[in-house]
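Is this the right way to post structure tokens for a design question? Let me know if I should format differently. Anyway, here goes:
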């Protein structure tokens, strides 16, 4: 794609928007960025943009700004049904995301990982397995470093391991990973995607451009991903924590095994007991990573060594400390009901669970049975508190704590030796915090200050 002197508009000045604008400018395009935030809110970004010769529109989107372009690059944070975006699409202008833009320039292979939950953990683990094995590896995408920032460092030998979200997938056209992984699909972000069907459709774009030479790794225990298989042109491999699969990775007698060909021999990769992460959901993440690694010919022994030395990513069921025989875990990244249920299911019982934050139109009643079995007390925080209390009314003891600090103090008082205090809030964080990392840090500090 020759961008020289092309007029390109970048919509949304987040991390990836900023990187995309700089990249486009570097390619000789005439770049404008447009963001609904005020010039004051963008004060940190604006000088560098102007310096690079990029025009900035702040405080709203002008329809004319959108019309005068050859290409629109939209950030994952900006909904496709934003009126200006809808109008330019109707007008016939090409609208792509940063992931699509980057993948047109990225050299080497792409391994792309999506799912409602487990993306960051699996992406980080796959990146470690590849780089431990000596493969020139770059990790990026939704996980932090925008994909466009990987372009400069990529060569034909590079394996680019990308975490991709449904928002990023909404705006891909030619994105074509050699290996695509869908970990699971459970209701999430329905406030933004509108319906479960359109959320699933977005996820499926990860393999839409794949052909018979590519691989698609799917979760054999997830009903929705099973339906996806019928629509794939690539070779489908399965992983399962509960049953044998025809080809892919599964657990047999406590050991993760790999089967390359249907009816072929099973190769032991790593005993479950050697996985240093908590919970059955993390076994699933390891299974998906094993498929990806073995499809890329990384030897089983090397995979085993890498998995053994992997540690939980911060804010993902991360062990903080043990005080008075009570363990504290930070799972602030559990921003939906399914993720929180996985965390709860990782402990046999005696859980003091902190729930709440900003509601995403979630149904908390689906947690009822599990909570009854494993959780002693729920401590509610944030703006979703009232809804959670209403939906879980009569199920178990609920303390309305309002803030994380108060919840930690109450839980520490109530927890008996051998029990667990778990922040796994099932909600996003934007009511009381900047993001889930901020919420996790506040939790950590409150926990560390206990004595
Ligand atoms: P993502 O990047 O998709 O949000 P993370 O790896 O950051 O995923 O994990 C987020 C949370 O989701 C974790 O804290 C954990 O509670 C839960 N989780 C992790 N892996 C899985 C999985 N395979 N299935 C369901 N829930 C998971």
């Amino acid at each position: 794609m020759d961008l020289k002197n092309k007029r390109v508009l970048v919509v949304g000045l987040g991390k990836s928007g900023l990187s995309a604008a700089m990249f486009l400018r570097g390619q000789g395009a005439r770049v404008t960025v447009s963001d609904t935030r005020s010039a004051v809110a963008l004060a940190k970004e604006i000088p560098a943009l102007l310096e690079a010769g990029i025009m900035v529109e702040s405080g709203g989107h002008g329809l004319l700004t959108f019309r005068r372009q050859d290409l629109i690059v939209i950030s994952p944070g900006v909904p496709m049904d934003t009126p200006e975006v809808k109008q330019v699409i109707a007008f016939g202008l090409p609208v792509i995301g940063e992931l699509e833009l980057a993948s047109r320039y990225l050299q080497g292979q792409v391994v792309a990982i999506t799912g409602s939950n487990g993306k960051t953990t699996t992406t980080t683990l796959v990146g470690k397995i590849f780089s431990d094995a000596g493969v020139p590896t770059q990790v990026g995408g939704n996980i932090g470093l925008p994909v466009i920032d990987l372009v400069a460092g990529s060569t034909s030998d590079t394996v680019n391991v990308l975490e991709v979200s449904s928002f990023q997938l909404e705006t891909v056209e030619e994105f074509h990973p050699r290996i695509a992984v869908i970990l699971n699909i459970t209701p999430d972000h329905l406030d933004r995607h509108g319906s479960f069907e359109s959320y699933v459709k977005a996820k499926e774009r990860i393999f839409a451009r794949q052909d018979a030479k590519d691989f698609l790794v799917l979760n054999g225990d997830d009903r929705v991903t099973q339906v996806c298989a019928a629509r794939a042109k690539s070779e489908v491999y399965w992983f399962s924590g509960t049953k044998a699969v025809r080809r892919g990775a599964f657990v047999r007698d406590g050991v993760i095994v790999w089967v390359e060909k249907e009816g072929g021999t099973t190769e032991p990769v790593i005993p479950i007991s050697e996985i240093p992460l908590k919970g059955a959901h993390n076994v699933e993440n390891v299974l998906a990573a094993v498929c990806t690694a073995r499809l890329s010919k990384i030897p089983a022994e090397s995979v085993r060594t890498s998995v053994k030395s992997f540690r939980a990513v911060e804010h993902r069921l991360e062990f903080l400390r043990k005080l008075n025989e009570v363990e504290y875990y930070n799972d602030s990244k559990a921003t939906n009901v399914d993720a929180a249920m996985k965390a709860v299911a990782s402990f046999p019982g005696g859980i003091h669970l902190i729930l709440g934050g900003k509601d995403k139109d979630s149904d908390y009643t689906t947690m009822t049975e599990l909570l009854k079995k494993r959780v002693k007390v729920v401590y509610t925080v944030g703006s979703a508190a009232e809804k959670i209390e209403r939906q879980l009314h009569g199920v178990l003891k609920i303390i309305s704590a309002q803030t994380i600090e108060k919840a930690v103090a109450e839980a520490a008082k109530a927890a008996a030796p051998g029990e667990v205090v778990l922040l796994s809030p099932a909600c996003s964080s934007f009511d009381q915090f900047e993001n889930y990392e901020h919420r996790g840090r506040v939790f950590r500090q409150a926990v560390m200050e206990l004595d």
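Format looks fine. Someone answered above. Worth noting: The mean pLDDT is 94. The chain has 17 helices and 20 strands.
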